[in-house]
Each structure stands twice: as structure tokens, then as C-alpha cells.
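Exercise 7.
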Amino acid sequence: MLQLELIERVKAVCRADPGLDGALMYGSFAKDEADEHSDIEFWLFFTAAARERLDPAEWCARIAPVSYLIRNEFGAHVAFFPQLVRGEFHFASVNHYGSLSTWPERGAPVDRMIVVDRSGRLERLLRALPERASTPAGPGDAVSECCDRFLNWIVLAHHLVERGELLRAWDALGHVQRHLLWMARLADGETAHWLTPSRAAETDLPPRTVEALVAATSAADLDGLRAALRAALAEGRRCWEAIGGPVPDALIGELSAAIGG
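Solution. The predicted structure, written as C-alpha cells, is:
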């Protein structure tokens, strides 16, 4: 894969950069879950002086030809390399090491993540992180964090459909689907990809669950949205009952009647 060549090039550039105190790789390649469609992803911690004079475009161009460079909504620079490979780079200073302590999970073995660690701070911070993100502690937490929010979004989506705001309803359906994915993972005991519940859902979850989740998708048209909401509500009830905790049967029954369930 081209990505493997790019990763080796990133590592070489990092090791040769005297202004770089630490660098780590995260994401699919660090987790050993990558394929030919995966991104390459790095956090780079420069000395304050080196970060001040850094040109992200010039730095990325040391790796490979870059057709375009953007800064995404999370503050990372994304370089588009040949074959449409995305390279995501967080250009930070050593003053931002503390932000690692807020990560909900490490997600990969430390030795696969560390590229450069000249001060030793990076390894200590990474080893202090949990390997996997925590899931709700019990049925009560699962209901409040996933099921209740699912119900809130699906009621809103229903009202938007009936008002005729189909694009806004379609947007709300995305929130319904995300919380439904979390519910399905809890119900089926498949929580490995908790932070991004759609990741590898087709292989993690049972075929019956995948079929139900697909049925809860739709284009932004009236009949399709109504059908998706009916399917989402049916699967949501199944998951809620499997998770445990009190199910608001009266409210779900009222919503089911309203959307023709």
C-alpha cells in the first residue's frame, strides 16, 4: 500500500527534524486495522520556536507531492497525497502535550504509536491512558446516555417530517442512527469500536442487526423518512429491552401510532 510508504517517509522526516520533540501515529494503522482506503494520522509536538516558524504545507510536501492542503474543523491539517490518500497532521507544540490526558482511549499499543519521543514525555502520557474507551457502566447509564437521546432525536425527526422540513429531518435522522448504533452495540455485546459506532459495523454486528440499521436509513423524501423512522423505532425498542432499564412504553406507543408503526 502507498500508505505504508508514506508512513515510513513521515517517520524519516520526523526523526530528521531537530525541532520535533515528539510524534505519534494514531488511527487505523496504529491499531493494525488499516486497508488501502485508510488515512495516515499523526500528532506532532514541536518546540515552541520550531512550531512558530513551521510551514505546514512545506512540512507535508517533504513526505510526498501534495495536491491540496486544508485545515479541518478539529484543527488538524489534512494533506491529499497521490491516489487520494489523506494524511492528517496535528501540528502542535510541546505546550500541548497535556491535551493527550483528555483522550478517552489510547486505542493502540504504545510501541506502535510512538514515532519520536526525545523527552520521554510521550510514552508516559500514552501509557497513562486507557486502552479502550469506557462504555456506560450499567443499564441506567446506558438508558440516559444512549436510549433517552435516541428517543429525543426520533421524536424531533418525526415532527420535522410532518412539518415538511425534510432536509432538516434527514439531518436529525443521522443523530437517531448514531445513537441507535450505540444501542445496538450494547444490546449485541459488540462494543470494540465504541467511539465511532459505525466503524466496521457490518462485520462487528449480527446480520439481523445490520439489516435493521440499514432499514433505518433514508433519502430526504417523505415516504422514505417515515419508513426509516418506523424501522429505527422498532430496532430501538428491541435494543432498549435487551439493554435493560425501564422502557417508556406509553411514549413509544404514542410515537409508533403517529408514524404508522
